[in-house]
Amino acid sequence: MKTKQKIILAALELFNEHGERNITTNHIAAHLGISPGNLYYHYRNKQEIIHAIFSVYSDELIDRFTPLQGQHESLTLLKHYLNSIFTLMWKYRFFYANLPEILQRDDKLHTDYIAVQDRLQANLIKIVRAFVELKLLDISEEDMPTISTTLHLVASTWLSYQSAMSLQTRITEQVIHKGMLQMISIVKPVATPIGLEQLELLEEGVQAMHIEGNDI
């Protein structure tokens, strides 16, 4: 693995564990066992590292939420997208938890973020449309952007909302499970009988994971 990639992975681990504000480039270098000068050879400052992490995140986000082609069982599709939400929120939780602050101090990153989210929103509408065609959801074409935006809003702000609403700022998998259940609750009122059955199966699975996590 190249040093640049090791720096990104180490920074992501430290940002997630301790919060991005509490980690410096010296912390990252020490964690990797390299000199600060070696780190600066690859990234001039912490902000460049954050940009690199965002680039990796953006590629994964668009890849996971590009509508799947071919024939897939409806439950398989639902599980795929729900699992993608969990994976991204957990893997990049420092970014989700402090999104406004991170974006407000970096105009270039903010511009890039908006461009990626515009692409994501277009894909989300296509995904919702696919679920309508599968007769899992009963939504008019005019209402598709609204429900897509609502789902996007919950996914992108859930961790920062939870941090603001609790004195315990540590993000756990159980906090993300709650967000997944919240998104399922948004879709249930517009589900067809078949779609509701599938969503309830997903809901039971997430609740089981949440209970199991609390027992650990």
Automatic annotation (TrEMBL):
Alphabetic keyword roster: DNA-binding
An annotated Gene Ontology molecular function: DNA binding
DNA-binding region: 24-43
Database matches in Gene3D superfamilies: Tetracycline Repressor, domain 2
Pfam families: TetR, TetR_N
Annotated HTH tetR-type domain residues: 1-61
PANTHER family: ACREF/ENVCD OPERON REPRESSOR-RELATED, TRANSCRIPTIONAL REGULATORY PROTEIN
The name this protein goes by in its record: HTH-type transcriptional regulator MtrR
Organism whose genome encodes this protein: Vibrio palustris
Gene: mtrR
